[in-house]
Amino acid sequence: xxxxxxxxxxxxxxxxxxxxxxxxxxLLKPEDLKFDARSRAFGLEINRFQWExxxxxxxxxxxxxVLAFAGVQRVRSRGVSKDIDAVHALIDIRFExxxxxxxxxxxxxxxxxxxxQLSVECIDVTLADIGPxxxxxxxxxxxxxxx
Length: 147
Hints:
147 residues, mainly beta, 2 helices, globular
């Protein structure tokens, strides 16, 4: 059983890239998405594949984690299912700067055509595992899934 709990903070594009790599292939349901307009915070509870522990063979692990974005001014989404049993797979997180930094748009890219765009004042993102990892038989395989 893995002993570490991952905690990361990103305040620039490089840090966001580290978090994007750590959450690649995370799974979540639509009910796991939350936006608090008053505090300008957007969060996701995810089942994160622990890439940092993955070798070529089992055991593989997932852990429950929270991915949180601060300074969110607006949220737009496309393709997020209304089906409570739907599962979305997070593939990437991208940032596009505005003409006046440090603001911009963070795009959460999911498998299929699903995207969530966050208009942000700046990059202020945290990722924290909130529980121990559990074993899983499957390791995401991007080579196998290419068309």
